[in-house]
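### Sample
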Amino acid sequence: MSNLTLYSTTAILLLDASDGSRIVAKYYEPPHAQPQSQSGAPAHATASGLPPQLNAKNNFATLREQKAFEKAVWEKTRRAAGDVILYDSHLVLFRASLDVILYVVGPQGENELMLSSLLSSLYDSIAALLQHGQIDRRAVLENLDLVTLAIDESVDDGIILEMDSMTIASRVSRPRPDVTEMPQINEQTLSNFYSSVKERVAQRILQGGI
């Protein structure tokens, strides 16, 4: 069944390419998701008639479940020839860069082209934010705040907000000081400042003595 809702993203992961360990992980679920029944189906799913994306809570509610999913996905993709797999009823798109792998995970029936566009824009925005323009583990850890903000600007509660990499990068990049507007401090500047202070002190002394 196709996903006819805005909730298109299950998770965004950035894993170490060498061992699958987590660098950054964001999991999403609709804020009004229903708890699942013991059979695995969302409670009241049939009665409400809503798509599974709106009914089911995230299958990775605990850290243990998340780590197990990440390890399994890494095992499936580390030697994969393509850039998309279907795993455990999830559509997993990925892109490797040096020593890290970026993943976008969505429901099985999600639009693959849309998730692929999200993956590309997120990859490009993160690369633009890092100093050398390449995504590697060290650069990500040194700029973890920017990487996290880029993800948050792209997806919120599983809803894709922005897929323009330059827009995302401009929103989260640190403001750079304008060197041209900073005053130049040299010996002449200090001398002028000292003379000005000396004159003011002399004027106050004279005014006090009158």
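Residues 36 and 43 are 5 Å apart (CA to CA). This sample (Coatomer subunit zeta) is used throughout the tutorial notebook.
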